[in-house]
Write a structure and sequence with these properties.
alpha+beta, Helix Hairpins, 6-stranded antiparallel β-sheet, about 15% strand
């Protein structure tokens, strides 16, 4: 079976524009009007044949299928004709291959770009884990204001506004204890600078923050699982494309929460 991708000098994942560009370049080099050698003539025929198959989405899909499973072509060869001209073997409609839908072809063409989403997802979750285990840093900041925010149902939470502009949301009534304080100590992660906790200068009152690292930790876990599955199943076009699409959404959610 001829390797049309090698003839044109392109990768199996090449887009139509790359195939067209490679064909034009080779056609100019080996056209009989430009290159009168006998070898160039045969090469020019193979180049035309390769371009005819790879430039047509339906023909290319069928060629890719036979290329990935060459045994299927051998097994599906037409059996020898019967000696009796009146004998006709019934043809099975299952032998006619359907062309892949346009949506599948579109996903296949854009999949190399979508794969960057899963790579970024793995990098983000890896940094998230490193950020969680690294020693935290502590900064002291003055208190500018402490006020309560009432929400639906009559409950409320407190906001501590620091001199540097930080707004620390404390979902605990004990946050009112910070009203008489002049300064706070904020514990931050090394990489993302996430506020892990806040306490008064003496350490009497300590409130935990960083809900992303506690109650909402399932978001980076889901992001990691989806990114890993997209990498593992990158040969399955439709599944891999949909996984990368979900990774893009999860990256946006994690970025907002972090």
């Amino acid at each position: 079976m001829k390797d049309y991708y090698s003839i044109l000098g392109v990768q199996p994942s090449a887009r139509e524009s790359e195939i067209r560009k490679a064909f034009r370049k080779l056609a100019v080099r080996y056209h009989p009007d430009k290159n009168p050698s006998a070898e160039a003539k045969s090469l020019f025929q193979e180049i035309n044949e390769a371009y005819d198959i790879l430039s047509d989405p339906g023909k290319r899909a069928m060629y890719d299928s036979r290329r990935e499973n060459p045994l299927a072509e051998i097994l599906s060869e037409e059996p020898p004709r019967h000696r009796d001209p009146g004998y006709r073997r019934s043809r099975s409609p299952a032998g006619n291959k359907k062309e892949p839908p346009a949506s599948w072809l579109l996903m296949r063409d854009y999949l190399p770009y979508m794969m960057w989403a899963s790579r970024i997802g793995l990098l983000t979750t890896g940094l998230f884990l490193i950020d969680y285990v690294l020693p935290y840093r502590i900064v002291e900041d003055g208190i500018s204001e402490v006020f309560a925010v009432r929400i639906q149902g009559g409950s409320e939470y407190h906001i501590i506004v620091t001199d540097s502009g930080r707004k620390l949301a404390l979902y605990d009534y004990r946050a009112a204890n910070f009203r008489d304080e002049l300064a706070v100590r904020v514990t931050l992660t090394r990489l993302y600078g996430t506020e892990m906790s806040v306490s008064n200068s003496s350490g009497t009152f300590v409130e935990k923050l960083a809900y992303m690292y506690r109650h909402l930790v399932f978001w980076p876990i889901i992001l990691f699982v989806n990114s890993l599955l997209a990498i593992l199943f990158r040969d399955r076009v439709e599944l891999c494309f949909n996984l990368n699409l979900s990774v893009l959404i999860l990256l946006a959610v994690n970025a907002a929460l972090i």
